[in-house]
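Complex record, two chains
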Amino acid sequence: MNLTQFAKERYAEAAVRARPAGNRIRQRWTEFLVEGMIQLSGVSTIVIVALIFLFLLREGLPTFLDIPLRQLFGGRWYPIEGLYGLWPLIVGSLIVTVGAVVIAVPRGLTTAIYLGEIAPPWQREILKPLIEVLAGIPSIVLGFLGWVALAPIVQSLGAPTGLTALTGSLILAYMALPTIISISEDALYAVPKEYRDGALAIGATQWQTIWRVVLPAARSGLAMAIMLGIGRAIGETMAVMMVTGNAAFVPELGLDMPLSPVRTMTATIAAEMGEVAQGSQHYSVLFGIGIVLFVITFAINMLAGRLVGVTVRRKGGSV
Amino acid sequence: MTRQHTQKIAVALITASAVLVVIPIIAVIAYIVVQGAGAISWEFLTARPRNGMTEGGIMPAILGTLILTLGTSIVCIPLALGAAIYLAEYAKDNRLTRWVRLAIVNLAGIPSIVYGLFGLGAFVLFMQFGTSILAGSLTLGIMTLPVVISTAEEAILSVPQEFRLVSQSLGATRWQTIRHQVLPHALPGIITGVILGLSRAAGETAPILFTVAAFYLPTLPSSISDQTMALPYHLYVIATQVPGMPLSVQYGTALVLLLLVLSLTLVATIIRTRMRRRRDW
């Protein structure tokens, strides 16, 4: 090998080494930038939640400072006369939501049990997409059906009008069902197969296994399913606005309470925000209702989050 | 009663209850299809409303919903993808990560009408976008974030750890690994999540009530600072606000909205099933 050849090879080698070095610096920069952006979008979720709360406070807080508390929690919602009692709206939301929960929870849990424990695979293949379809139906479409088709049926039950708390509860129940079913099915799925095998091996029937072993093991997940279902029901707006009759007064306590028209917090915002002057007291009160809704759903989700924490920890301990 | 009897009764009751859940779903869809199919014609889909919206078509509302869905995806996808990659690949098990997860869970739980209030306060008034496609897309985009983040994160996590190890052992950096190994394999799952999220956004009414939706517009929107009509709000308007509206038009509008949203859901489901079948790990 002569000197020229040797030199050529050295140069070539140096070039090969140099290229990745140059790349590596650029790579490090790309890496740095990309990681920064990714981190930023992760953190942005916290910022967004904070911003939502801040903007609600900004527009709604004057309410709680200006209106005397006794009036705010009074029973009269007459915005035209400047009376902003939230009590009828809170009661309205409560009645409709409780009704929806009473209808949806037993059905949701049993359907989840059926899907997770009893149904053969081919039925699961059909049922699960169907429940996803239910989750996908826009609330306005269900509200519309409630308005034109369900209300006359409810009226024939003996109510003076078809637009009642019960109509709202029925529609809401079906809107909360997909949430309840899918989360409780996940909870059942997370119960180790060994638990079932063990129970069946010592002679328990399938039902005894489900009732005494599987359900207790999945209970925190099931509780979470119910809570998130409640959260879904409280926050629903359009369907409820269309079918509950929008009467902002507290119905009398009694068995026929579900058959009286009510008005929920969400429906009040949706129905009245379009007509108020920006910056007026009425406007501010509607944002105040938004704060109440935000706080309620926030609390529900924090509690549900706790429950998830419990399940994970327990699973971590047993494995 | 023996325990075998209890077993039989319990299973029968559970099955009956599941059937009772499923039948109304099928009934609702069938009912809207049957009642609405008659109203659907080429004119209904492509013409503008006439005569106080009682005649003609619903084209501006369909177009508006498509524009809003596009706007939603532009707002939502980059941010959601970033957050999902962060949670799946970068996040350490520390307080910040727990806060991010908590934030996402809470975003998912915030009622849609509260998003509407936020959009009104933040985008329409504070940033002075006015009631516009821009304000509506931002509101819907933020509302869609949690759905897309959680499905995309799941898709990324489902890519086997070995892929990452092999890629990094060949000298690839973390981002190169994610960009060239993880994301391509997670893509079908991510697309499923995005489509599902968009189908929800397309059907939402409450967030667009005060941020973009118009009762009736004689012209089509020409820029992102214009208002637009949208299918869900249009259905609300013609069902409750316009007296003397022919029922067939109402059912027809409901059917178009339902088909639009459900076809998106269907596409998402098909992509997911295919992906599961084709997966070779």
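Note: The longest strand of chain A covers residues 77-78.
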